[in-house]
Specification:
The chain is an alpha/beta fold and 307 residues long. Helix content is 45%, strand content 12%. Bound molecules: NADP nicotinamide-adenine-dinucleotide phosphate. Its EC number is 1.1.1.300.
């Protein structure tokens, strides 16, 4: 940060934390978008923006009542009636398969998949399939969802996959010997591990998708005032006290929107963005061998063959 930026940050921290906004004016009429976890927070603001641009937006959520409330608010505000709610629980592979099956039966095209849903700081718990909750929802759930929808993305190309990761990936490791935290568990680290998995998945996916006109990029949205800290009493209070230093969900959605619509990213793939620009990936996030191993371990855990 240069001196001018420091002075700006001290004099007007609100403006500084807001970060960059997506400047693209791209229209999305005729485009079909799925956004996971779009009933609140960053996902909801991403859905609102893409609906305003004219896309058909599928809000894929586990809490249908909350999702319907978000969808009707977005429909009323944007005038776009093509904002649709579909049931998806990423903590249950049966629900993920049902969601994909229905989507593929009902929709002919898919142009943008935004893997946004996430959990953080959960007390130790497991998904319906016995995966540690952070790794299960944030990584394995989205890995399976992407696998099930990939052919439709390829048929609809040019298409984009956007994985919402985090700066927290810098603190993560892929602990192959204890992927489900059964030997040792720390809920902060479990989140970091799952966000590193998002970065590695994006890297390997982009490599495998070369030449298909389907791109895959990851991003950090910034520190955003949202419901993400709901599992920690302390963090919930800290988030409230320091809310002035956090992005609003609209500000936090800008990099997701940028990765989904920016014309200059048409053929950009395998990258990691923050504040609508390329950002530094941790050395562990650039480890191709770990990325390949995580891919095959994920396939084994999910019982799928993805070559
Ligand atoms: N907020 C930040 O500072 C920050 C920083 C870095 C990265 N991120 C990332 O940004 C993404 C969005 O987070 P956010 O801040 O907007 O948090 P949020 O307000 O808590 O939203 C998370 C969304 O994920 C959904 N979700 C959780 N578990 C799910 C499941 N099993 N199946 C389907 N959906 C599920 C939630 O649905 P319910 O409401 O039904 O639970 C909610 O819609 C996450 O991937 C997060 O890791 C956030």
């Amino acid at each position: 940060m240069n001196t001018g930026t420091w002075v700006g940050a001290v004099l007007c921290p609100g403006r500084y934390v807001a970060g960059e906004r997506c400047k693209s004016t791209a229209k999305m009429e005729g485009k079909v978008v799925i956004i996971t976890g779009a009933n609140t927070g960053i996902g909801k603001e991403t859905a609102r923006d893409l609906a305003r641009r004219g896309a058909r937006v599928i809000i894929a959520c586990r809490d249908i009542a909350k999702a319907e409330a978000a969808a009707s608010e977005i429909r009323a505000e944007t005038g776009n009636q093509q904002v649709i709610v579909k049931k998806l629980d990423l903590a249950d592979t049966k629900s993920i398969r049902e969601f994909a099956e229905k989507f593929l039966a009902e929709e002919k095209e898919l142009h943008i998949l935004i893997n946004n849903a996430g959990v953080m700081l959960c007390p130790y718990s497991k998904t319906a399939d016995g995966f540690e909750m952070h790794m299960g929802v944030n990584h394995l759930g989205h890995f399976l969802l992407t696998f099930l929808l990939l052919e439709r993305l390829k048929q609809s190309a040019p298409a984009r996959i956007v994985n919402v990761s985090s700066l927290a990936h810098h603190g993560g490791r892929i602990r192959f010997h204890d992927l489900h935290g059964e030997k040792s568990y720390n809920r902060g680290l479990a989140y970091c591990h799952s966000k590193l998995a998002n970065v590695l998945f994006t890297r390997e996916l982009a490599r495998r998708l070369q030449g298909t006109k389907v791109t895959a990029n990851a991003l950090h949205p910034g520190s955003v005032s949202s419901e993400l800290v709901r599992h920690s009493f302390v963090m919930t209070w800290l988030w409230k006290i320091f809310s002035f230093f956090l992005k609003t969900p609209w500000e936090g959605a800008q990099t997701s929107i940028y990765c989904a619509v920016a014309e200059e990213l048409d053929s950009v793939t395998g990258q990691y963005f923050s504040d609508c620009q390329p950002a530094y990936i941790s050395p562990r996030g650039r480890d191709d061998e770990t990325a390949r191993k995580l891919w095959s371990v994920s396939c084994e855990l999910l019982g799928i063959q993805w070559d």
